[in-house]
Structure prediction request, 925 residues.
Amino acid sequence: MAAAQDAQDAPVAEEGASEGDEIIVTGIRETIQTSIETKRRETAIVDALSSDDIGDLPALSVGQAIQTITGATTHREKGDASEIAIRGLGPFLSNATFNGRDASNGSGDRAVNFNQFPSELINNIKIYKTQQANLVEGGVAGTIELETLRPLDFNRTRIQAELKGNYNPYGERIGTDDPFGYRATLSYVDQFETGLGRIGISLGAQRNETSNPEETLAASTTWVACDATQTVTGNCPEVDRGEDTPFYLAPNAITFRQIVEHDRRDALFGAIQWQPSDTLDINIDAQYSNRDFSEERHDLNLSEGRYSISNRVINEEGRFLESYSGVSSLESTSTLLERGEEYLGGGIDIAWEATDRLTLSADASYSGTKRVEIERSTRLRSDPLDIYGNRTPLNNQRVPYTYTIENGYAPTITFDPRFDITNHDLFSDDARIRRDQTQRENEIWAGRFDVNYQLDGGFLSQIDAGARYTKLTYEDFDDRVEITQNDRNVDRDVNLACRTVFPQRDFLSDAPGNSISSWATFDPICLFRGYLGTEDPGGNEDVRDPANRDVEENTWAGYVMASYDSTLGDMPVRGNFGVRVVNTHVTSRGLRADLEVDVDPDTGAITLEPVDDSFVGVTIENETTRFLPSINAIFELDRNLLLRLAGYRAMSRPAPSSLGAGRTIRLDDGEAFTTIEEAIDGIDANGSPRLEPLMSWNADAALEYYPNPDTILSGTVYYKKFTGGFIPVRIDEDFVIGGETVTIPVTQTRNSDDQSRIYGFELTLANRFTWLPAPFDGLGGKVSYNYADSDFETQDIDLGDVVDLDTGEVTQGLIPPANISGYSKHVLSAQAYYDAGPVSLQGIFNYRSGYYQDFVGGNNQLRYVRDNETFDLRATYQVNRNISLRAEALNIFNEPKITDMPVKGSIRQYHYYGSKYFLSVRVRI
Prediction:
């Protein structure tokens, strides 16, 4: 083929010659060449990252690999790439598959957990930017396909082992942490000729152990609009929607958090491919992973973020506080969070060539994830008395402080110097011991049957048709055991026994303006033993709760698609057209219960608890049917110049956790109420079972130029018209509280009738400078850019517009809406590489402009992630045919992740993770 011929004309890395002077292209150049060729031969508009060999994707993780693909970018968690956005549109608008199947996760959304799959065992990633009917179900933004190799297709024996060590400089700051970790990967691929036909096997295993220290400042996830006309002596009075009253935005709490994390992941992959004859292909594959994760957190918490706010300087545009004075109780909270997540997936795929023209195929699969998270935390609070019963210098539970932002994101918080936050004696009262357990289970059973019929001559070249059935279930529950105690003698003994030295030096030293470097910390497990006599008191026997979710989604889908291959004059034209029909039936089960009012005899504080024998089941069902036509056309303007046109209708489903039928009793960040009226205001819907898929009509046009196997210049313009947005609605519901029936307006999210659109363009340029003299002919690069413009609106659940379903009346919100979740106007990826002989060097720059990111589960307030950029380096040296060395550095400039809430500019949180460095050796036999 042309790619192989041109490859021989340029100096490239040599793995060995199989015939005479034949040269095998390897390294980054081979990956880019293969990706260009994949894009060229696909019918839809596709961008890809693929390699003919395993373990050659130039990235540490699947998420990092994907963000080098044109128009794709990621959301960062723990300093690594996680959820993927296509064309600047969030994971909610994309569909992701693993070996052609939906994959479950433990987060409650539909995004594939890319960190769950080792990149060393994946050799093909495709992103379909446009849809075609045989995808059965795509997404508004696109479809991400991850594929592991089929052993018979690989067609050679390969034993490969890689050991990768990592170093995290932030770990050096932590006295109890090990800054080093490792990842070990072993894989084996082989083929056998037997009396039963050809059999291929592939096996892979990986263990990854690392620590990811993190430091952050964060405000609470709930913000209120405070009346700016009043002097505040307690909690600020709130302004409601529709009121024409000056206001400012304030969080319920502010927290400094230091984190020590330990993370171990084990993964196993396997496949058996059997071809008993030339017409029958059977492939069985399975994947298993298990992750054990723990975080030891040490928090300094200002638990009363909107108490006695004075000296206010309010940003006129965003209505948030740029500086102010306040008073708050201070808390030292010690937490051990442990999470276990287990994934099991796999299936069987059978393809049979019934005749020379007819191929039948079937696939059955299962994907299941179970995540169990147990969090044990103990809070110790400031008080007028220290642990010995002596009056403190302040003689008050609440500590004065000042807050100011002068550098854009890192607030300077200064406490009254009479309160020494490093003095363990001063955290002496109101001990609260909590055990929270969260369990999420997501299972997907699926089956598919496809028919392919090749036609002989004429305009149409083949017909494809098929059907699919999928059953998705999602269940979760949260269980809390909470104990408080007021015996000062016990407080003193436990305080003295469980003190720790602040576990980190240089805390948030990289954040400009930060004034807090340490505070009094305690051992969380020691506190549990001291207060309860046990490290873990266990959960409640009865975990029923109105907030539990139980969702079942049954989907039937069918499609028919015709492919064509013809000419228009002398110009070759090919493509496909078809339609898919998707029927979805959602059944969401929840619980309702009477609520009893508990009054603390010492403080008079009120809490609400379900009455045990009053639980009643509630079932809400919703069904939708959607028709999704599509057409793709490729015009070969010249041998190396293609024009692609596409039109299609697409859908994106809400997350399973967003379809819950439960109700959440919000206790104002865990604090008790002082009046029943305040308690009544704290009941929210934790899901919207009648939330329907987001639909869009789409049009794309792309011009692609392929002058040689190393080079591509392409540009795509696209337009998407949405037929509905999201808006909070208010529904009156009856609750029995303290024996009395009370009607409460409950707010949840529904589809609106709004019309909105997105238009944009993306550009890709990849080239290797083979025309330069040696050794500079090994230089190459790739640049991709995506621009999108959207007028979509997402309203804040508490402070945005709201619709009364009974009257249809819209109450004007207090803050502007966000765009669609995950939407970034600008996405840029730039790579430069040098690939010659045994040396391969690569630098990768990624930029993503700010975006709104919804919380998993929906029905939350608006959260914005600010612009972020990262720069990574990679270097590989091929020692010989069998051994290679690789060095990698991530986020070398220690770029933080910064979020705002509930308006842009109003800082909610910033994270620092530090840089990460890796060194590995790989052996191939």
